Amino acid sequence: MTVATAVDPRPLIGEPVSLDLLNTRWRADGELQDLLTDTGGLAVWLASTGLDDRFAADPATLRHTLTARDALAALVDAPGDPAGAARVDAVLGHGRIRATLTPAGPGEVSEFADLAWGPGWSAARDHLDLLRTAPDRIRACAHEACLLHFFDTSRNGTRRWCSMALCGNRAKASRHYARTRER
Fold first, then answer.
1. pTM for the predicted model, two decimal places
2. Dihedral Cα 113, 119, 122, 123, nearest 10 deg
């Protein structure tokens, strides 16, 4: 299903699929941006995550992907909240993993009653994997105006910013400005 798509305008891409879905909302120059306002933006996100070869960017897929994004946001914004977990669980209810045996060996295949749930379900499933492996490394950017999330892969697990070039530099500049004003 790969088609030519526009360039991904988001400031942070390449995170695990669940966090990448959350990062389809961001701030630019103080204004809230949302990649998933239409099927064109969904096509960009599907291509960016490599899901465009399995899923179509149609209105039903957009609707279900937005449902998954909202569920993941509720879970990440309030870890441990049963309501957020229930919303993600509801998304996960739209798919399943079937074990397979192929000439190459054991495998798994994702199955959906409605293929339009595929991208959202895949993001929710990915989040389970992150929670299973290193839940303490799922982070929101420390900059107060930033909405982005990332998976901290730093050696010592102390990454604070979505990007040192963006938010990290803004924080440093803000601290410098505050120090020079005090003098």
1. 0.87
2. -140
**Cα–chain center distance at 134:** 16
d(CA 40, CA 68): 18
As a whole number of Å, the CA-based R_g of the chain is 18
Q: Tell me the helix, strand and coil percentages in the chain, rounded to 5.
A: 50, 15, 35
What would the pLDDT profile of 106-125 be if each residue is shown by its tens digit?
999 999 999 999 999 999 99
Closest residue by Cα to residue 72 from 62, 87, 51, 53 = 87
Place of tokens 């899923």: 55
| Amino acid symbol at 143 | H
Burial category of 101 from C-beta neighbours within 10 Å (exposed 0-12, middle 13-18, buried 19 and up): exposed
